[in-house]
Amino acid sequence: MSSYAVEVVSTLKSPDGMPYTVPLGKNTILIGDNESGKSAIAESLQLARTGSAFGLLYRDKPVKAGTLLSALIPLGADNAQASALLESGETCTWNLKRGSSTKQEGPVGTSLSIAELHAVMAASLETKVKFFWERIFWKIEYQELFDQLEPPMQEALLLVCPVGKPVDLSELLGKIGKLQREQSNTVKAGQIALESLGSVRKFSDDELRGVWDTMNRGLIRDIVKVMYRDNKSDPSLQLGAGIDYLIDYLGGKDALRRVRSTEEAGADLSEVLLHRRLNRAAVAAKNGEIRAGDLRESLKALRTAILNVMIAAVSAASDEFIRKISAFLPKEEGFIFEPGSPGFPIGLSREEETHTALSGSTEARLLAAIAAGLSDESDLIIVDDRMWDPATLRRTMIALEKAPAQVVIMSTIEPKGRKRGAWTYVKVSRESGEPLDIENISK
Predict the structure, then answer these.
(1) Which is the most buried residue in 151, 209, 217, 219, by most CB within 10 A?
(2) What are the start-end ranges of the E strands in 24-78?
(3) Confidence of residue 425 (pLDDT cuts 50, 70, 90)
(4) Are 10 and 41 in contact (CB under 8 A)?
(5) Right CATH number for 5-131+317-440 from 3.10.450.50, 1.10.600.10, 3.30.470.10, 3.40.50.300?
(6) Nearest to residue 361, comparing CAs of 330, 383, 334?
């Protein structure tokens, strides 16, 4: 059963906090000046259908958190609401009370905005590969992934991924990236620890025994002094033999005078013991830094290997994907999609010329075709206003009529030619501080 919305009711960005109602079709074009309220309608539909909206508050990802979306609550109101009536008769609702979490009820769909696709195309190679992998493959059997890796990478995989379960490679790349960051933090902590230890001298076991011996000789000298004093004050103690024995043990009277005091020997011993402890700490910090650095490099290599597996898989499916996207482009244009080439070029070809640096309405038309090729009946495609010219806008509308998803296009101008029966034309206008004026101009 088709599940597109035939109507959306919303209070988002309503100047008086009152709801406004917008009629929709499977394909809808919202026509109005800048700041007329077109984006509020598209955001309302996204929130009601999916619980999030892309690109709000300058973020290049879907926004769902109530703390952020509270900016959508009209001034003087306590909540914001959006609901979508589906063709099936079911209703999807989204509600946000100030200071609370968002709440979405009803059949949940998925949304793909052209702004989101634009962000993906401008992102890193990994982001692009992950995006298309998720929509073409999503998971891979563990053994299949394991067999495609070299032995060192197989060992690294065993450290981060349970054996035997289907693997979500995008999720796995995220996990590996987190582990890489943790190891980088460990390396940094080790480096900071080494710097904080300062200059550490390494004392050998023989040097430590020498300091202990000096300390012991100082203690014996102290004992001799005490015995000599006691024996002098009380000769009946008869300590002379013991005194002579200890003096001989120390090497004689001359050697006795050269024995360092226990205070000096104790200071030396404390210094040696401190440096020995610091040295052990330095060794541990250095070993930890080395282990973390080695693991970080292994994870980096594993991440690259997994990304190559994903690129190979997406490349193998590229012919079918190109055919699918080309169905939503004019016959004179070809779709360029080369995952295995440097930079992962995506663009159009015309008259044997390659165009990958697209802009304006041409870029939007290509992104809309990609969205259409990736979508199904439960999806919602949002095409933001891209400074359309009337002819390009009309060609884009014709191509998107074949998309299985519900399509909403925003435009400041009307398309060229007569109104198309497959589209619902909605004119949106608003005077400053006034409610939205919604008019169905399909006929």
Answers:
(1) 217
(2) 27-31, 53-54, 62-63
(3) very high
(4) yes
(5) 3.40.50.300
(6) 383
